[in-house]
Fold Ferrochelatase.
Amino acid sequence: MSRVGVLLLNLGGPDKLEDVGPFLYNLFSDPEIIRLPFRWLQKPLAWFIASRRTKTSQANYKQIGGGSPLRRITEAQGQALKQHLADLGQEVNIYVGMRYWHPYTEEAIAQIAKDHIEHLVILPLYPQFSISTSGSSFRLLEKLWQEQPELQPNDYTLIPSWYKQPSYLQAMAQLIAQELDQCPHPDKAHIFFSAHGVPKSYVEEAGDPYQQEIEECTTLIMQTLNRPNLHTLAYQSRVGPVEWLQPYTEDALKQLGAQGVKDIVVVPISFVSEHIETLQEIDIEYREIAEESGIHNFRRASAPNTHPLFVKALADLVMDALQSPSFKLSQAAQMKKKVKMYPQENWEWGMTTSAEVWNGRIAMLGFIALIIELLTGRGLLHLIGILQ
């Protein structure tokens, strides 16, 4: 019997406060996050940002318990998936590959080769495809296998996006319904979908299908929920002065408050695990904005985590992948006609949508200030004028 493996891909996050500095260094060493005209500047700049911003970032992680729960939850999802597949008669080895912290994708790939896995299913824990989340992880895999072809399994298949999966939609609907039923008037509470944003240029210039998939996913969840509630879709976590997908979450909350909305259920639609963007950004920052806007009953649907229907969704995805023709990395690059899996090699600044939001906001300001000082001799005051 052939050995089957499932590789779960995710961002990663610092497990404890001491990890924040190294995590930031790894994050900003990636040219997918900050693109520079000279590659030799990448690591020195990453060190500069990490060393200057570690304490501030640690303060943000202290607000959610001193570290990211992402690894723990992802590993729990993997164990639940393994058990569910075993119940279906399919034995698998589960591997977790993170982009910026342990267990790294590189570690997972090495272990997969060591275990002599013959058939590998690559499952990104991002329901909707984006060139900056799933696409970024796929690019890393391709690079690793090009450099060390002996690490590539005999056969593999990947799942580029899966936001239409029925059990996933049912899990989301159940999580929303649980919160609606806690409201004074369940049918009148406003459902507020908050997705991680991306720069508008990703969609309009690079052809990223992310916005289309988020919008369609929102519609499918509402159809599955089958309740009369009004709903809104907005985008969180924007960084820097460039335009991101709109409406922005903070603006949409203020607008609903001005319209007299009192009860709201926030749904983190693009996240499948609790982490800093749900526990800190939504639960603390956006809650405060909502309350200041007059929305006094602020509730949030949990991320799917290890919800039984969500685990079933992952298991069904794996079983379907094993029984279908293989889908390769080269096909993912061509999945959408306009999508550029490899961004143009020009000088631009920015960060991937998967970067944990407070690290990104803080470090981005330091980066812009440094570049302005180096190139123009004009410092932070000029930067503030730009951002205003």
Summary: Residues 341-365, 372-388 have pLDDT under 50 and may be disordered.
